[in-house]
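Researcher: Here's the sequence for the chain we discussed earlier.
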Amino acid sequence: MNTTILGLDSKKTKNVVINLNNLLANFQVYYQNLRGLHWNIKGKSFFELHIKFEEFYTDSQEKIDMIAERILTLEGTPLHTFSEYSELSKVKVGKNISKDVDGVELVVNSLSELLKIERHILNESDDANDEGTNSMMSDFIAEQEKTIWMLNAWLK
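Model: Thanks. This is the structure I predict for it:
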């Protein structure tokens, strides 16, 4: 078996890197959506959501860096162009959203897409004995599930 410098199976690690790049692309679109929501939100929930969307995009920015650094740790190259992000992303682009409910629904739907990718990576990284990626995905999943629960409570 051909292994990486970390002692992981090279072929399995390459698949993890491909899927981490997919996650990176989706997170970049999610991040940009959050910036747009932060800038464009209007209405009675403005103050509450303006702050919340900033909190979310700051957190996303940190996660984007963590994903890119994990790709590098696994001897891959993180994607870094908008064309690659657009091509791979399943997260819907939110354009000109200013209504509170529409903005929160976009975030919930985006997080649901991210969770699908993260769960796939979780299974794949487990199969590759890649505890570093596995741990990162577990942390992301737990946090995002709670965020979805809270946002759904806000929507009701």
